[in-house]
Amino acid sequence: MRDNGGSGRWDGGSKQALQSRGKASLKEVSISRIYGLFRGYIWQLTAIIALALAAALIGLIPPLVMKEIIDSAIPQGDKRMLTLMIGLLVLLPLLSGLLGVWQNHQNTKVGQGVMRDLRRTLFANLQKQSMSFFTDAKSGEIIQRLTGDVQAVQNVVTTVVVSAVTQAVIVITTVVILFVLDWRLAILSTIILPLFILPVRKVSQIRKRLRGETQRVRGDMSAQLGEIFGVSGALLTRIFQQESKQEKDFDVLNQKVMDLELRLNLVGRWFGMVLGILGPLGTALIYWYGGWNVVEGTMTIGAIVAFTAYLGRLYGPVGTLLNLQVEVATALGVFQRIFEYEDMQPDVANVPGAQKLPPARGNVAFQHVSYAYNKEKYALHNISFSALPGEVVAIVGPSGAGKSTLIGMLARLYDPTEGAVTIDGQNIKDVTLSSLRDQIAFVTQESFLFHASVRDNLRFARMDATDEELESACRQAYIHEAIAAMPQGYGTMVGERGHRLSGGERQRLAIARAILKNPRILVLDEATSHLDSESESYVQAALDELMRGRTTLVIAHRLSTILTADRIIVLEAGRVAESGRHAELLQHDGLYARLYRTQFEKVMA
Ligand SMILES: Nc1ncnc2c1ncn2[C@@H]1O[C@H](COP(=O)(O)OP(=O)(O)OP(=O)(O)O)[C@@H](O)[C@H]1O
Question: Which of 99, 393, 475, 524 is deepest in the core (most CB within 10 A)?
């Protein structure tokens, strides 16, 4: 690697950033990290757990009441006591039911809150990622992680903490009461508990693997749907009539999701069945041993009834606790995917102690800049040139020469692997991203518009722009008349990608956006699409207006741009092949002269 004074991309932090970007981290998710999600909800959780405990303790009373009815009230013919006890049997479940409703509501609130927080952190971290992440990832996959994956852990998030505590309390209190009632029966009923634990490990492993796989396939499915039903994908499908091929491709993933979900469910049912048969086994043992003792006269019938009622409170919660463990293990694969996005480091970020870029004069310089998308291939090699304030530098070169990569560096869409880009002598890597991007407007070839009104799309450039400012910018961009003629004027909604607007109108809206931002530095990728001569002249006029008085770096496709450019940089395979003004370069009769004859002269014709 060439030495360039320490800005090499493959060393230090940026190398790690690339490795962590979009790739599965093998780091296992710790349970404590999942519990950490609840940190902000400690007080609500304490209240919920207190309520759940109260409901659990109330639940311990009815079997004792039943024992009293059978062993005392009925044999003694005490009708008053009988009525009192029946009253208790009705009231206690009512009370614990009411507590349960409130607790459940609070529980859901905490769970939903945790999920909202998760989505918020993921969203914020995705916003921090640099462009390279988005060019590598599929948008459907991103959406799936942010929504589908978070949804997939809902069950764990909403029930895990509360269930773990309350069920554990129920189990402990029940075991204590069982031993108080009769230690022999208590030993008999707890002796089968280890049998419950055996299947858990195996089931957890299988379900974790299946859940991870299901979410991966769902991610693929979302990515596929995003591509197929995006405007460009839908267009391509129709033009090439590939509807049935896509249906087949979709069916493959669709079927996979179904098969995986079926397997997941089946494993769950087998587990449920094993737990289900262990419960009655315990009850049978108690009736056998207890019945034996009642016959011998060493135990009362009420004691057996109360005992078996408690068994439900023992085996049920033990099953729930174990199931919880399986649920958590199942969700671990999904948590892994979620945390992977949360931990992702952007490879373009503010350096520690980054300063604000002062209002720029517009002196731009590329100093020995190289860039590699990956280790194998450099897209740019040792690029050096500069632009004085107000100058226009045109970048030309064959397709794939590195033009887009080069202009992207000025807005730090990518940081140089080697070398530096400076504005007014300051390395842009050392200034804050926001202060840098505040002073640069970027007009891309494909002018993207959000599904929102024309006004809102324009305000994306500057939220506080007044209606008058919007209109003035649009007049300068020669688009005001066209907007005014739309059904709702500036309030007209434009479709995703602005498909209700013509190519020329979209470009001029993008130019108006840049005018509204009014930056010192302009980065421009001129559209190659051939517009009719009227649109073309409007767009040209709008561009002339936009470039006036600004330092402009432009991928030039228009003859007028290269003719007026202060400097033309001719790129070839990532290197500067030639540079100079139009006349000099023509005289040189090299790559530029060839490009000029094949591309620009034709445009002029
Ligand atoms: N995200 C990426 N990952 C890996 N390689 C990339 C990526 N983007 C571009 N490249 C490669 O880098 C090189 C330069 O690409 P770039 O888009 O900058 O060229 P360009 O001159 O703008 O091309 P065009 O005029 O066709 O748009 C090409 O070889 C391209 O294949």
Answer: 524
